[in-house]
Amino acid sequence: MENLPQWAQLMAMFFPLTHLTMLARSLSFSLFSAKMLWPLIYLLLFWAVFFPLALYKMRQRLIK
């Protein structure tokens, strides 16, 4: 990611796949540290917001 331009790096930080990749790499190489808590918190917040929204929209479409 450090090879990307600054604007693309900032944009990538909004996508959950970036955080998931960072966590997967750190866990696969046993390099998990306190620094990895922020991606974990981001993913949990993303899930807490968008999972209920996805369920709501799915139920709304199935009922109609």
Oligomer classification: single chain
Taking all Cα atoms into account, the compactness measure Rg is 16 Å
Percent helix among the residues?
over 70%
Low-pLDDT ranges: none
Shape: elongated
Order of helices and strands: HHH
Written description of the protein model:
The protein is an all-alpha fold and 64 residues long. The protein has one domain. The chain is built from 3 helices and no strands. The protein is elongated and about 45 Å long. It starts with 5 loop residues before the first helix and ends with a helix. The model has no long low-confidence stretch (mean pLDDT 91).
Task: List its traits.
73% helix; 64 residues; mainly alpha; 0% strand
Topology at a glance:
Elements: H1 6-12, H2 16-28, H3 37-63
